[in-house]
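Entries read sequence, tokenised fold; example below:

***
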Amino acid sequence: MVGANGFLAGHVIAALRRRGWRVIRAARLQGRPPAADERDCDLGRMTSVDAWTPLLDGVDAVVNLAGILRETRTQRFDVIHHAAPLALAEACVAADVSAFIQVSALGEPADGGFIASKHRFDEALLALPLRAVVLRPSVVYATAGSYGGTSLLRALAAMPGGPWLPGHGQWPIQPVAVEDLGDLVARALDSGAAGLFEVGGPAPITLETYQRQWRRWLGLPAGRTRHVPHWLASLTVAVSEWTGRGPLGGTMWRMLRRGNVTAADAGDRLRAAFGVAPQSLEQALARQPSQVQDRWQAQLYFLAPALKWAVATLWLISAWAGWSTPASTIEAMAAGTPLASWQPVPLARLGGALDAALGLWLLSGWRPRAAVAAMIALVFAYTASLGIGLPRAWLDPLGGLAKNLVLLPALGMLWVMTDKR
């Protein structure tokens, strides 16, 4: 399986194992040693048949789940979605691999490079002398966890007072449960079917209906729907595209506004080929009751980045205070305490530098857990040194050191919430 580290892959792997398949996971290992069922795979470099041939030793069939929602300097749509998987498919032909299952995406090439590059490979794959099945799902959701744009939609559904909708919220979608998609992949391998299949729920529903069903599932009061102006939603998407961050990119936004539904006969074709078709969102939610953790995940979605920015801002303000406070003020504060002999002014300036470095590190997004861990260590150091050397700081009328008793668990929560795996 290519692209085996993603959220979707976990459900597909579970479905394959339930049907007796032994799964070999191909993914970027980034220097770590592979597990017994892993093989190192970097699509950005594997654009020739020879690059894939060693990975196909002992492989009976291939499932491709690899994909990127945004391009980066090292990962491009045409390489990840077209050139590399096409080289893999051609290697499968040469190695007599029995089947190739491609999980693509429902949409129009005009929606953006994500869809266009996926569909170019779909067409090239189906033209090869190889049994190939291409599955093009609509919006994919999961009751056990969420990811990407579905996490955003669930969070908007769980907003205080009622669900929030981008625009008028009447765009049609045909959502499919990730468990149903995983089952279809497994059935596609076991069947003799070939060709292109669109995958969605039994009937289209509006985005507003989708949101209200999730809110009901989360056990929240219905409330009143709030509509985010179209221009504001578009501006938010544009900023996300410019910064390269955020779950809803330009392609997804265009797909939503166009409507993301299957052909009228899509369900019948799935039943004829695989003996099953996806259930409705209402059925899927009825079979899996929500837990308090689901509400936590939805309602913490916007609080996690807010906490990150608040902590980074606090660190930068602290840095400014350490640099800008006059030396005479610092010396007066330390007078008559053990800190007076610790060169308090250079210590304050050094502390300001450390605070600035950590605040900027957290904002950079590089290894955020390490940044938060360093902040926790620094707060412990500040609390211990000032608590001993300047004990009156505990009783400062504005909080002083006592605020660290709240800051430390807040940092602990931020450390937990930065886990994106």
The radius of gyration is 26 Å.
